[in-house]
Amino acid sequence: MDNPATVNAHIDRSLTPALASYNKRMRTKVALIAHDRKKPEMIALCRDYKDMLAQEELVATKSTGRLIQELTGLSVTMVNSGEKGGDLQIGSMIASDDVKAVVFLRDPLTAHPHEPDINAVLKICDVNDVPLATNTSTARLVLGHLKDLQNTPEPSST
C-alpha cells in the first residue's frame, strides 16, 4: 500500500488545477430572492454587504431586484417576479451552473400559490451543491464566506 502522505500529495497535485478551473468556470452570479415580508431583511443584508456584493454579478426576482437597486444602488439583473416564473428562471440559472450562491429569504408562515416553484429552487440548489441561505443568519454566513473568497488570492497552477 502507498504511503498516505504520498497519496495525499498526488491527490492535491491532481486536484489543484481542476479546482482552479472549477472556480473560474461559469458560476458567477449571486441570486437574491425575498418574499414581501422579508424584503426589509434583504435590504439590510445588501447594505451590510454592499462593498462585497458590488463586486458580484447579482440576479434577483423583479420586485426584490428593484428595491435593492433603488435602496442600495447595487446593479442587479432582474428576472420575472416569483409568482410569474422568476423563481424558475433563477432555478434554470442554478441548473446551468451560473449561480455560485443563493439568498432566498422566504416567508414560511405565509401561503404562496407558487410553492412548487419555491421548492424547485431549494431542490436544484441541493442537486447542484449551491450554497443556499433561507434566513438572515445563514445569509450572513454565506455572504461572509463570499467576502472572504474575494479577499483570498487564487491558487497558482504550478
What does the model show?
- By secondary structure, the chain is α/β, with parallel strands linked by helices.
- The protein has a single domain (26-150), classed as Rossmann fold, CATH 3.40.50.1380.
- Helices cover 53% and strands 15% of the residues.
- It has helices spanning 4-24, 39-48, 50-53, 62-72, 86-95, 115-127, 136-150; strands at 29-34, 57-61, 76-79, 99-105, 132-133.
- A 5-stranded parallel β-sheet has the order 3-2-1-4-5, with helices on both faces.
- Helix 6 links the parallel strand 4 (99-105) and strand 5.
- Helix 2 packs across helix 4 (62-72) and helix 5 (86-95) packs parallel to helix 6.
- It is globular.
- The two termini are 27 Å apart.
- The model is unreliable at 14-24 (pLDDT under 50).
Summary tags:
five-stranded parallel beta sheet, 158 residues, alpha/beta, 15% strand
Brief sketch in words of this structure:
It is built from seven helices and five strands, in the order H-E-H-H-E-H-E-H-E-H-E-H. The protein is an alpha/beta fold and 158 residues long.
Question: Can you count the helices?
Answer: 7
Per DSSP E runs of 2 or more residues, the count of β-strands stands at 5
What do we call the CATH homologous superfamily?
Answer: Methylglyoxal synthase-like domain
* Helix proportion range: 40-55%
Structural class: alpha/beta
Percent of residues in β-strands: 15-25%
Mean pLDDT: 84
Instruction: Give the termini distance in whole angstroms.
Output: 27 Å
Strand order of the largest sheet: 3-2-1-4-5
Briefly note the CATH topology name.
Rossmann fold
List the helices and strands in order. Answer: HEHHEHEHEHEH
- Please describe the biggest sheet, giving its number of strands, its sense, and whether it closes into a barrel: 5 strands, parallel
- How does the overall form come out from the CA principal axes? globular
What is the number of independent domains?
1
Provide the low-confidence segments as ranges: 14-24
CATH class: Alpha Beta
Q: In angstroms, what is the radius of gyration? A: 18 Å
CATH 2nd-level architecture? 3-Layer(aba) Sandwich
